[in-house]
Amino acid sequence: MTDSRPAAANANKDSGERSSQQTSQQNSQQTTHFGYREVATEEKASLVGEVFTSVANRYDVMNDLMSAGIHRLWKRFTIEISAVRAGHKVLDLAGGTGDLAAKFSQLVGPEGEVILSDINAAMLSTGRDRQTDDGNCGNIHYVQGDAQYLPFPDNYFDCITIGFGLRNVTDKNLALRAMNRVLKPGGRLLVLEFSKPTNPLLSQIYDTYSFKILPKIGKLVTQDEDSYRYLAESIRMHPDQETLKAMLEDAGFANCEYHNMTGGIVAVHKGIKL
């Protein structure tokens, strides 16, 4: 997969590479979770890649079915608190089919820039095709890349979003530090992600839906039950709201806060780079 990056992609590619490589070497003998399974750290990215390659062509349909369309409201709220305006530079990580990127494209206008980035080639290709078909091709550029090792210069973006992608990143702390590096001072990070329901009864209902019903929907629509079982497991392994807030603070973000939506099934975390 090739990219169509503007100046951001052509500058400072090597920033942070040595430290990232050292971290990778240190982690090479370690394990991490892939859903409820323990796997070698270096294997997780490829396993996650297989999941999204499998579901890429039905991803939007499944999002609507899984959330009864409510995911559109979650994303709309994220856009509303982004403070993105004309001329801004926005990075949409794990951008998938480009729901957020399309909205940001309208907000930043012809003088602005939106980079839709995804580690998975199939998802990125699907997103590029969809946005091109919708006529969103003037200020959106596409970069296949890993959120842990962002190939962009320091202090470049006004806003970074990552929607339903952080839980799939192997080293979340490394990724958050990389996001902090490429944000401008005063820029904001928005992490939209499944989280922990705040009501015990809702939590029980959500568990039943996630593990009994969701995989069956995945099997019916995408012929892939296992991928949606992994997605349910990955949500349970993701840090809760307070833990993720602390991780943002540890990565150097200030004024960190989160907003629960749909009873805490989803939360959007916000942090500002000083």
| Structural class by sheet pairing and helices | alpha/beta
Strand content: 15-25%
Figure out the total of helices.
Answer: 11
SSE topology string: HHEEHHHEHEHEEHEHHHEE
Strand order of the largest sheet: 5-4-3-6-7-9-8
Which range best describes the helical content: under 10%, 10-25%, 25-40%, 40-55%, 55-70% or over 70%? 40-55%
Number of strands: 9
User: What do we call the CATH homologous superfamily?
Assistant: Vaccinia Virus protein VP39
CATH class: Alpha Beta
Distance between termini?
35 Å
Report Rg. 18 Å
Overall residue-averaged pLDDT value: 87
Q: Can you tell me the CATH topology?
A: Rossmann fold
Q: In oligomeric terms, what are we looking at?
A: single chain
Largest sheet: 7 strands, mixed
CATH architecture: 3-Layer(aba) Sandwich
The count of domains is 1
Structure description:
There is one protein chain. It is built from eleven helices and nine strands. The two termini are 35 Å apart. It has a single domain (46-200, 226-273), classed as Vaccinia Virus protein VP39 (Rossmann fold, 3-Layer(aba) Sandwich). It has helices at 7-10, 17-27, 44-55, 59-67, 71-80, 99-108, 121-133, 172-182, 200-222, 225-237, 241-250; strands spanning 31-34, 37-40, 89-93, 113-118, 140-144, 157-163, 183-194, 253-261, 266-273. Mean pLDDT is 87; it is low at 1-5 and 7-28. It has 274 residues and is α/β, with parallel strands linked by helices.
Helix and strand topology:
Blueprint: H1 7-10, H2 17-27, E1 31-34, E2 37-40, H3 44-55, H4 59-67, H5 71-80, E3 89-93, H6 99-108, E4 113-118, H7 121-133, E5 140-144, E6 157-163, H8 172-182, E7 183-194, H9 200-222, H10 225-237, H11 241-250, E8 253-261, E9 266-273
Parallel strand pairs: 3-4, 3-6, 4-5, 6-7
Antiparallel strand pairs: 1-2, 7-9, 8-9
